[in-house]
Design brief:
The complex is a heterodimer of chains A (97) and B (296). Chain A is α+β, with helices and mostly antiparallel strands and 97 residues long. Chain A contains four helices and three strands. Chain A is elongated. The model of chain A has no long low-confidence stretch (mean pLDDT 87). In chain B, helix 2 packs antiparallel against helix 3. Classes of the chains: A alpha+beta (97), B alpha+beta (296).
């Protein structure tokens, strides 16, 4: 990945008004992938959307890290089930007029 | 523009105290928050209403005005007077969730009664705008080839390219065509869900296509040729003698194009449906009887 594909955590936190420790704890908990680019802790751009979602869950709904972990796992399960439903609906269409 | 009953939106009584409002808000926000209800337009709408209701009911001044004129906002003068004397009130002790959405997206009723004070941001944090969802119906024939479509998105014409092989229920993301970002944050995305109904002739499952081909009895018994129409053109099929009704054959690579994989196709499954002749002449009946005797 190139330099422009990363944003230093410090800058990200300034922009979003959160403490660096919050993002670090997301990383330590395995909720977010934190990369090191030239010895600077960074977020890869494809992680930003996820990071913003985690911040909203943490700050707006006051869910702790364990809770966020459970929520994200359940949301992933829902996503998988939704794609399975679409597949099954498409399969059902084969037998319907 | 219609009256919005903020008390019923929050599920509380008119006499509810500040802490009851806060409690109701937190409970409903956890239920309706867009991050917990992805792709649920109804929940997103309710969440916006909830934010709006909280904006009013958690602010004593706004609540007073709402209680006083809310239901009769159409009865102009008093309401207008109240409107003109409005001033922005401090936001201390109130909470507003962005939920990845633009919290300024309030109802006409709110904007008329309280001006655009809802646009006031309670945090300076930058947030990405809300993702918008849209449905697009594409025919099976259209989905077979890469094609362009022009969509009207927020009064702007946007030309999108739909790659061949897109699936029914598949969603594509158009970056930056969603809601406006909050406090200078990036705009959200537009998520387009595709609906691709089967047509009368073909049914599709993944990259495979299914077709039923009618075969007259004589060709089924004696063999021959049959030309069928596929999405990529006509194909001539060789029919073996004594082809059974319901026989299924697989034509490799004659199905649907694989999404974003050039020159890769699924298969075409052909099922033969042998048709029994109707309105036989006497002569034909005699011949069938002869056949019957010879088979016994």
């Amino acid at each position: 990945m190139e330099f422009q594909d990363f944003i230093p955590i410090e800058i990200f936190c300034q922009e979003h008004g959160v403490e660096v420790s919050v993002i670090s704890s997301f990383g330590e908990y395995g909720l977010l992938e934190i990369s090191n680019y030239q010895e600077i802790s960074c977020l890869c751009i494809n992680q930003i959307e996820n990071a913003e979602k985690l911040i909203r869950l943490y700050r707006e709904l006051e869910i702790n890290l364990q809770g966020i972990d459970v929520v994200t796992q359940l949301l992933d399960k829902i996503k998988k089930m939704q794609s399975e439903i679409v597949y099954l609906q498409n399969r059902l269409n084969l037998y319907e007029n | 523009m219609s009256f919005v009953d903020y008390y019923s939106v929050m599920g509380i009584q008119k006499e509810a105290k500040e802490d009851e409002i806060k409690k109701a808000y937190r409970k409903l926000a956890r239920k309706l928050h867009p991050d917990l209800n992805p792709n649920d337009k109804e929940a997103q709408k309710k969440f916006q209403q909830l934010n709006e209701a909280n904006e009013v009911l958690s602010d004593p001044e706004k609540r007073k005005k709402y209680d006083q004129y809310g239901e009769h906002w159409e009865q102009g003068e008093a309401y207008e007077k109240a409107r003109q004397s409005q001033h922005r009130s401090p936001n201390e002790g109130r909470q507003q969730f962005a939920g990845g959405a633009d919290s300024a997206d309030f109802s006409d009723f709110f904007n008329s009664m309280f001006g655009n004070s809802g646009e006031q941001k309670h945090r300076q944090a930058k947030f990405r705008g809300q993702d918008f969802n849209a449905d697009l119906v594409v025919t099976l024939n259209e989905a077979y080839i890469t094609h362009s479509k022009t969509l009207k998105i927020q009064d702007k014409n946007v030309r999108i390219t739909i790659p061949a092989g897109i699936e029914n229920g598949q969603t594509i993301r158009l970056k930056g065509y969603g809601g406006k970002g909050a406090n200078g944050g990036p705009d959200g995305d537009l998520l387009i869900s595709f609906s691709i109904p089967n047509n009368a002739q073909f049914k599709r499952l993944g990259n495979d296509l299914y077709i039923t081909v009618d075969l007259d009895l004589y060709t089924a018994v004696l063999g021959g040729e049959k030309t069928i129409e596929t999405l990529s053109g006509k194909i001539k099929l060789k029919i073996n003698p004594e082809t059974q009704n319901g026989l299924k054959l697989r034509l490799k690579g004659k199905g649907f194009p694989v999404y974003k994989k050039e020159n890769e196709f699924g298969d075409l499954f052909v099922t033969y449906h042998v048709q029994i002749p109707k309105n036989l002449t006497e002569k034909q009946q005699e011949l069938f009887k002869e056949l019957q005797k010879s088979a016994q």
